Amino acid sequence: MAASTLGSAWGPLRLGVPGLCRRRPPRGLWARARRLSEPVASGRSVAAGSGLGASGTDRYCLELLRKRDYEGYLCSLLLPAESRSSAFALRAFNVELAQIKDSVSEKTIGLMRMQFWKKTVDDIYSDNPPHQPVAIELWKAVRRHNLTKRWLMKIIDEREKNLDDKAYRNIQELENYAENTQSSLLYLTLEILGIKDLHADHAASHIGKAQGIVTCLRATPYHGSRRRVFLPMDICMLHGVSQEDFLRKSQDRNVRDVVYDVASQAHLHLKHARSFHRSVPVKAFPAFLQTVALEDYLKKIQQVDFDLFHPSLQRKNTLLPLSLYIQSRRKRY
């Protein structure tokens, strides 16, 4: 049984905020967390609180991120003030690409939108960005931090290939997708922070892969509602599970075993990333705050015995802003 073998396969899960229930946070943390988690009245108020200008392009990126990538929004708020606007632009660029797949009815239209972003990146590096809010903010970030064009293009190319709507053939294919999207995003975030370090890049690679795997798991109920399943086929075949089992929201043991195997791979990547944290520059740690949300999900899925469709997995973690803030203060990932 998946749950019975968890201790030997994963070892004890190290929650990003140990002792949270045993110890009252220092005065002021709760207030800061409430400010982060409250709905934003206007883009101007967020910009002011983030140390950003109040231009329309700033506001557009902030609102897009808050609505479409709330965890990324919170993590970006906790970056150094001089890096936040660029991080918001980068993550808004990622959101724009990510939502293409679900917003088009035909692959051809999706390919046209991807081609727009390829040309946009080329134009950005020619100092001629189109009049599109995310493009303008990304251009500013590229000029400010001399961001590597290759990573931006990798994200576009990988998301373009992913328009095919096919399940991953194996876990390695899912990891490659995560490396070229989520890890590339982290490499660029490190550049925004001014970090050029091999160990930090190594950590970013593993954390990005963990992010991609967890995202695939978290999105399975949503994809299932649209008659799609993207979990690795090799692991499904190993346990004798069909795509129809996931579409029926089966709670059979073999279905949970598939989820356990996939989640274990994400946990392994987090463990690898942390195994050399002493070699990673402390200045790089803010780029890796998303490990808090990743570990929170892995802990929750363990608690429900790897039932991917359990209602508790669909609820927003109201303590996430506080957990992220405490993690940022502890200088760890």
From TrEMBL:
SUPFAM superfamilies: Terpenoid synthases. Keywords: Membrane, Mitochondrion, Mitochondrion inner membrane, Transit peptide. One of its GO terms (biological process) is mitochondrial respiratory chain complex I assembly. GO terms for cellular component: mitochondrial inner membrane. It is found in: Mitochondrion inner membrane. It comes from the Eukaryota. Belongs to the NDUFAF6 family. This is NADH dehydrogenase (Ubiquinone) complex I, assembly factor 6 isoform X1.
